Each structure stands twice: as C-alpha cells, then as structure tokens.
Hints:
Elements: H1 2-16, H2 21-59, H3 65-80
Helix pairs in contact: 1-2, 2-3
Amino acid sequence: MKRIEGQVRGIQRMVEEGKECEDILAQVRAVRSALQSANKLILKRYMLRCYTETVSDAKDGREDQESLEKFIKVLTGFVDG
C-alpha cells in the first residue's frame, strides 16, 4: 500500500509538472494494476479468515449465519466493483 501511495503521489507530481499525458496514463495503469493485486490479496485473506471462523463455529456446534451473510456481502461488493 505504501508503494501504491508513492505511485499516486508521483502521478500528482507529474500532473503538476505538466508531463506528457501518455506518461501519466502509463503510471495510472500501473497504479490500477497494483490496486487490483492488493484487492485480490486482501480478499483472499478475508476469505481464509471467514472459512477458519466458520469451521471453528461448526466444531463448537454453532451455525454462524451472520458471518456467512457478511462474507457474501463483502464478496458481492468486490465483484460488483
């Protein structure tokens, strides 16, 4: 995330300095790609945490409908963009 932050600041600086649009757009594309990678990693970690909690709850004999609904909401929000 710090790298992405630095890239965004770099884009801001490029705009302020009047750099070529092609160069700025290339950097925007790089930031977008980095954000997509970060999104995937965050979602993967969240999915693993939810799965672990669900398995733990099942072992305790509890059904955790609320956790499942929250997971579905986050996942569909990610997919919908």
